[in-house]
Write a structure and sequence with these properties.
The structure is a single chain. With 585 residues, this protein is an alpha/beta fold. The protein is 63% helix and 12% strand. It folds into two domains: 98-353, ABC transporter type 1, transmembrane domain (ABC transporter transmembrane region fold); 360-584, Rossmann fold. The protein is built from 19 helices and 15 strands. The strands form three sheets. Strands 3, 4, 5, 6, 7, 8, 9, 12, 13, 14 and 15 form an eleven-stranded mixed β-sheet that branches. The protein has a two-stranded antiparallel sheet with strand order 1-2. A two-stranded antiparallel ribbon has the order 10-11. Strand 14 (558-565) and strand 15 form a beta hairpin. Helix 2 packs parallel to helix 5 (130-172) and helix 9 runs antiparallel to helix 10.
Length: 585
């Protein structure tokens, strides 16, 4: 019961926000309509149960007129049942897509809010494969939640409706054993209850491992799919390294987990299916076994026998609701657990920057970026970089150098506000625009125009502006392809990607531009031309670069060096006067 209450609490927390959202009127209307149709279908079943009595009595008595009338009545009921079933399915699917659209938008918004997606990866959170959780798990949650809720409500109403009928039939067809009647009030109801409790208990005992197995299966499937995508994304490097054999082995290992877990699901499902199928088949004959003695003793007619069997089947089916949907219920509980873990992971990532100790990135009234008592740490708590009373002045070009692995890129991440691990503060001018260009820039799959202006919308810059920038960075050959859709990170060389990254910076003209080895794939002459172009076209932009080439010093006024001090690296910033002589050389 504790597990059930916990699961229901989680389901309510995940599902309730939609029915309090801006789409609540449409969602509630569709839900009420689906439930109303389900109740109407139950009412039709009740009427049909009474029809069984009349129809089979007419057959037994060879009443032709009554037989013809009941056939016509059945056609009306069947037509109504078909119409209601069609529209219930239509409205159910309409509700599913509206609810799924809202949940998907909500999860995307929270996942992509202020670098939550990045911090979730940094913390090594258990919420693996967010793509699967947002796509597959949300779809399954909405579909199965509606199905289970409507099915459970139908089972409750069916039980309430047919228990009364079955109780009355228990009196009309008393238990007949050993040639005499046994007056047991509502004995058919008690038999149905005992049968259902027995079946539910055994189903839970046999099928309970399916919950964890379903959870793991979804995880393994997503992991295998993710690694297939990784191979596709990095196919060039794999081909150049002749890494196909290693990739095949790695993918086979991950698919092996899918297969191994699937075999366990097969074994458990075989046992569960063997019981539930036997249980369902026995339920067909069980009511006839109970009532047949009364029928052969001529206590009831054929119509009464058939009505009793139908009513017993409805009660037994309602009481055995969890038996019939146990496999779906196991999958649903696994989906609920995955979405719960995803929500908790997002919440944890969102609160990470405000949990002490953390690096505070605060707005300031000055025009400089000021670092005070900064200690940048790794996610495991180990120190990486320390800095105090360090500033980046406006319009001052700064070069950051140091050994590989010293944490230069991590320092940039801390300034950007996406690296919370550490302590101290970084004051950034209020309303200042910052742009970070890494060594391998990101381009969304789509048109070249959209890739260049990212994260802005394509319409924010004119074609003339874009073509002018492409010419400036030496990529005029790409002008005819502006509206061509491609995977540009795969189509272009790394040098071309870095040129496009600089084109993006020229279009957006940020106040602070951080270049993290953003020209490392270019030759020194091309790199020099692009730095001179940045100086000419972005005179008001403060440029901070990470680089290892000595030639970069000529394009910066200040050199900041990361040097080893004990268990960490520290910023050493010589004065401008000390730097200028070396620049002049």
């Amino acid at each position: 019961m504790k597990k059930i209450r916990s699961t229901l609490a989680i389901v309510w927390r995940i599902a309730a926000p939609y029915f309090r959202s801006e789409d609540k009127l449409a969602g509630l209307t569709l839900l009420v309509a689906v439930i109303a149709i389900e109740l109407s279908l139950v009412a039709i079943d009740v009427v049909l149960n009474q029809w069984y009595n009349r129809f089979y009595n007419d057959l037994q008595e060879r009443n032709w007129n009554g037989f013809v009338w009941e056939i016509g009545f059945f056609i009306v009921l069947a037509s109504l049942n078909v119409a209601l079933s069609i529209y219930q399915l239509y409205l159910n699917q309409w509700l599913q897509i509206r609810w799924r659209r809202w949940m998907t938008s909500r999860y995307l918004g929270r996942w992509l809010h202020e670098a939550n997606h990045y911090r979730m990866q940094l913390t090594g959170d258990a919420a693996d494969n967010p793509d699967q959780r947002i796509s597959d798990d949300v779809k399954m949650f909405v579909e199965q939640t509606i199905g289970i809720v409507v099915g459970l409500l139908s089972a409750v109403v069916t039980l309430a409706s047919f228990v009364v009928i079955l109780w009355g039939l228990s009196n009309a067809a008393p238990l007949h054993l050993a040639g005499q009647d046994w007056a047991i009030p509502g004995y058919l109801v008690w038999c149905a209850l005992i049968y259902a409790v027995f079946g539910t208990a055994l189903t839970q005992w046999i099928g309970s491992p399916l919950v964890n197995l379903s959870f793991e299966q979804q995880r393994y499937e997503a992991d295998f799919r993710f690694n297939l995508v990784r191979v596709r994304e990095n196919s060039e490097q794999i081909a150049l390294l002749r890494g196909e054999g290693a990739e095949r082995e790695r993918l086979s290992e991950r698919f092996g987990r899918v297969v191994h877990n699937w075999y366990q699901i097969m074994s458990r499902t075989k046992r569960l299916t063997a019981f539930t199928t036997s249980y369902s088949q026995a339920a067909v004959i069980f009511p006839y076994v109970l009532v047949a003695p009364a029928y052969f003793a001529e206590k009831i007619q054929l119509g009464g026998l058939m009505q009793t069997a139908s009513a017993f089947g409805s009660v037994q089916k309602a009481l055995s609701f969890f038996v019939s949907i146990y496999r779906s219920l196991a999958e649903w509980r696994a989906v609920v657990a995955r979405l719960d873990g995803f929500e908790m992971s997002i919440e944890s990532a969102a609160t990470l920057p405000s949990r002490p100790p953390s690096i505070d990135v605060v707005p300031s009234g000055s025009d400089t970026i000021d670092v005070a008592q900064l200690m940048v740490r790794l996610p495991n708590g180990l120190p990486l970089i320390s800095a105090d009373s360090f500033s980046i002045a406006a319009n001052e070009r700064t070069l950051v150098t140091g050994p590989s692995g010293a944490g230069k890129s991590t320092l940039f991440r801390a300034i950007a506000g996406v690296w919370p691990f550490g302590s101290g503060s970084i004051a950034v001018p209020a309303h200042a625009s910052l742009m970070m260009l890494p060594q391998r820039p990101y381009f969304p799959v789509g048109t070249l125009r959209a890739a260049i202006v990212y994260p802005a919308q394509p319409g924010e810059f004119s074609t003339e502006q874009i073509t002018d920038i492409l010419a400036a960075v030496g990529l005029s050959k790409l002008e005819p392809r502006l509206d061509e859709e491609e995977h540009w990170n795969r189509m272009l060389s790394l040098g071309e990607q870095q040129r496009l990254g600089l084109a993006r910076a020229l279009l957006h003209a940020p106040q602070y531009l951080f270049l993290d080895e953003a020209t490392a794939s270019l030759d020194e002459a091309a790199e020099a031309r692009l730095y001179r172009m940045l100086e000419e076209r972005l005179p008001a932009t403060t440029i901070v670069s990470i680089g290892h080439r000595s030639t970069l010093a000529a394009f910066h006024e200040r050199n900041v060096v990361l040097t080893r001090e004990g268990d960490r690296y520290a910023l050493q910033s010589p004065s401008k006067e000390e730097v200028k002589p070396s620049l002049a050389e």
